[in-house]
Amino acid sequence: MQLDIIKSNGEKTGRTIELPEEIFGIEPNDHVLYLAVKQYLGAQRQGTHKVKTRAEVQGSSKKLHKQKGTGGARKGNLRSPIYKGGGTIFGPKPHKYDIKLNRKVKDLAKMSALSYKAKENGIVVMEDIVMDAPKTKSFITILQNLNMGRKKSLFVVPEYNDNFYLSLRNVPGANGTVISDMNTYDILNANVLVLTESAARLFSEEVAAEA
Questions:
Q1: Counting Cβ atoms within 10 Å, is residue 179 exposed (0-12), middle (13-18) or buried (19+)?
Q2: Which domain, by its residues, includes 62?
Q3: Same domain, residue pair 21 and 121
Q4: pLDDT tens for residues 183-199?
Q5: Are residues 63 and 129 in the same domain?
Q6: What is the pTM for the complete model shown?
Q7: Which helix (H) or strand (E) holds 90?
Q8: Domain co-membership, 114 together with 36
Q9: Using an 8 Å Cβ cutoff, are 42 and 97 in contact?
């Protein structure tokens, strides 16, 4: 898959880059995409929900009346779930929602997400972003030059850059990640995937290293 390399002002550099078919041209696997997204969203949940059982609520433990001979139903104490203020039956307890996925499954999901973005023409390769200081206004100008509008975008850089992240963190719809931290959910959630030139070349190097 060959793409033009774009300048930060939106113009073409005249250079192109070849993205490996082994990553961007595979047949997407929808089931592993579902599993990867489920794992990611599940891991975001705190799972701290909790209700009190009849053993934990406050109240007297005295039996309300004798077991037999009253003509009414037998009753325990005020903490019984049938009374207002009593314990809860089968209520939620703290637990984790994340699931385990093998590394190969997660890698396949990530490649499937990239393949979908390639089929949708949702990938842009631009020159490396160089920012001398954090400047949100400068980053917004880059988005306007790339005709992003209000589209959700994910910028992928080869390594962490403090000025880059501080510049985009207050821009609605814009997100940034290091290529090593890129995940399936962020790729699918973005309308446009923006790869810096250095990050894009790492894909080819990875395929060459595995060959």
A1: middle
A2: 51-91
A3: yes
A4: 999 999 999 999 998 98
A5: no
A6: 0.82
A7: none
A8: yes
A9: yes
